[in-house]
Design brief:
By secondary structure, the protein is of the alpha/beta class. The protein folds into 3 domains: 274 residues, TIM Barrel (Alpha-Beta Barrel); 70 residues, no CATH class; 132 residues, Double Stranded RNA Binding Domain. The protein is built from 17 helices and 16 strands. The strands form 4 sheets. The chain has an 8-stranded parallel β-barrel with strand order 1-2-3-4-5-6-7-8, surrounded by 10 helices. Strands 11-12-13 form a 3-stranded antiparallel beta sheet, with helices on one face. β11 and β12 form a beta hairpin.
């Protein structure tokens, strides 16, 4: 199979995602990660469009990229002025990037109705804009904007735009499904004809408005494109761009195309990193890199996986840096419990049926352990008598005081007792009753366990289990905690949200103390 190059536009197209705003340092950090991973081209932004992108290209130009080639983005010149007088093109010509990617119209409707110029004049815009950059020492790619819409509307003109770009000196012609409305068969037909019309290589740039961006990108490659443009996690305006976290492994594992030196075992890490910097966590259901991509819940599935993972997994999760997860639920059988115990490093004993029955009984009351491994492990250890409670909570009180227009104050008073009978009675404030309870509990326990000072909550979720019961409904509380190096999730269920929260909080602290105890034993 032919070699395919990968072009990342997370820093430009991905930055157009609603709710995302990359700082200059964010963009530099992501550029480093993309370079480490082995992306061929990284589009950094639009020089001259804003001070942040100007600063980025100034700093990025001083970086020693090992694998990636930095690319600057822009447009053809404006109507009515020469290329050398266009501020956009001059900014591109003077920026630090060796490569420039400029876009121009290839749909006759866009030319006549959006630009409001003649069709031949648009061809001149494309050709002399590219020639100016080439003569300025840049290597140029051309994004044929709305190419597939243009191909359907006026095939001859869309192809003429490609020829104009080639005549100007473009080394790559990128066919763009800008509105994201094309089907794979339409992509294939247009790519095949475009290949017959020009002599330079073609690339594909798809948007996901029809949920077809990945399929259309793969269809384009199958038909002859040798570059795919997209973003990490499918970020982008509207419904996003082609998701490189799906495109790349599909090319590598499914179509057999040759890629450059990319370490796909770091793909999941890259996905999470970009999600963290963007403050937009990747979808848990994302193929290949999502936390649910290799999660198994049904007992029969897990039983088959124990014999051969190929029964319910299309690739090895570790090949993309992901991992297999066995979910414990009321659908679990003995095989599921055994696999979960093995995953957590616990002994698989003859008590698996008892554990299974206990899980099913608790889930019938609203518990859910598939997202709370810490509570599951504590449950198993308690059932086996491997651990005794490290502390008890004989009682607590919550006080709420109204502060007029400034809201309400929360205070929790709590009494805890360690396993030797020592009692600590203290109180703490919080921005809500659960926060106050958490603060008071950890404040009291640090007298006995100073290591708890490093524990903090990172997430708190409440799920009403029976909406029809209104305010009398049972609730399930999930709490995620961290000690700075590890994270874990615990669960609590009750008709009282405070009690449910306390159950999850106690489990969280017990788990943290168990981790510390295990570390001391190993050391």
């Amino acid at each position: 199979m032919d070699r395919v190059l990968i072009y990342d536009t997370t820093l430009r197209d991905g930055a157009q995602t609603e709710g995302i705003s990359f700082s200059c340092e964010d963009k530099l950090d992501i550029l480093r990660k993309l370079d480490e991973f082995g992306i061929d081209f990284v589009e950094g932004g639009w020089p001259g469009s804003n001070p942040r992108d100007d600063e980025f290209f100034e700093k990025a130009g001083k970086m020693e990229l090992r694998k990636s080639r930095l690319t600057a983005f822009g447009s053809t010149r404006r109507h009515g002025i020469k290329a050398e007088d266009d501020p956009n093109l001059r900014a591109l010509a003077s920026c630090s990037a060796e490569w420039c990617c400029i876009f121009g119209k290839s749909w006759d409707f866009q030319v006549t109705d959006a630009l409001r110029i003649g069709l031949d004049e648009n061809l001149d815009l494309v050709e002399d804009s590219i020639r100016f950059l080439v003569e300025s020492g840049k290597r140029v790619m051309f994004d044929a904007e709305h190419f597939f819409d243009g191909y359907r509307s006026n095939r001859r003109y869309a192809l003429n735009v490609l020829r104009a770009a080639e005549n100007g000196g473009a080394e790559w012609l990128i066919l763009c499904d800008t509105n994201g409305g094309s089907m794979p068969s339409e992509i294939s037909e247009a790519v095949e004809e475009a290949l017959l019309s020009v002599s330079v290589p073609l690339g594909i740039h798809c948007h996901n408005d029809s949920d077809m961006a990945t399929a259309c990108s793969l269809a384009a490659v199958e038909s002859g494109c040798s570059m795919v443009q997209g973003t990490i996690n499918g970020l982008g305006e509207r419904c996003g761009n082609a998701n490189l976290c799906t495109v790349i492994p599909n090319l590598a594992f499914k179509t057999g195309n040759e890629l450059t030196d990319m370490d796909l075992s770091n793909l999941t890490t890259l996905s999470k990193y970009v999600g963290e910097v963007a403050n937009m966590p990747p979808s848990r259901s994302m193929p290949y890199v999502g936390s649910r991509a290799f999660a198994h819940k049904g007992g029969m599935h897990v039983s088959a996986l124990a014999r051969d993972t190929r029964t319910y997994e299309h690739i090895d999760p570790e090949s993309v840096g992901n991992g297999r997860r066995i979910l414990v639920s009321d659908m679990a059988g003995r095989a599921s419990i055994s696999e979960k115990l093995r995953e957590l490093g616990l002994e698989i004993g003859e008590d698996s049926p008892d554990i299974t029955n206990k899980i099913k009984d608790m889930e019938s009351k609203g518990y859910q352990f598939e997202g709370a491994d810490a509570s599951f492990e504590l449950l198993v250890r308690r059932l086996r008598g491997d651990m005794e409670p490290m502390f008890t909570v004989p009682g607590f009180r919550i006080f709420m005081d109204e502060r007029g227009e400034h809201g309400m104050d929360s205070e929790a008073s709590i009494k805890v007792c360690d396993r030797n009978g020592n009692v600590e009675h203290t109180a703490a404030d919080g921005n809500g009753p659960v926060n106050a309870l958490d603060n008071a509990l950890r404040k009291a326990l640090t007298r006995f366990y100073p290591e708890l000072r490093d524990i903090r909550l990172t997430d708190y979720k409440v799920r009403v289990l029976d909406e029809k019961s209104a305010t009398a409904a049972s609730v399930r509380v999930l709490i995620r905690s961290t000690d700075g190096s590890e994270s874990w999730t615990t669960v609590g269920v009750s008709e009282n949200v405070i009690e449910a929260s306390l159950i999850a909080l106690v489990d969280s602290i017990e788990y943290a103390l168990m981790i510390q105890s295990d570390m001391k034993v190993r050391s």
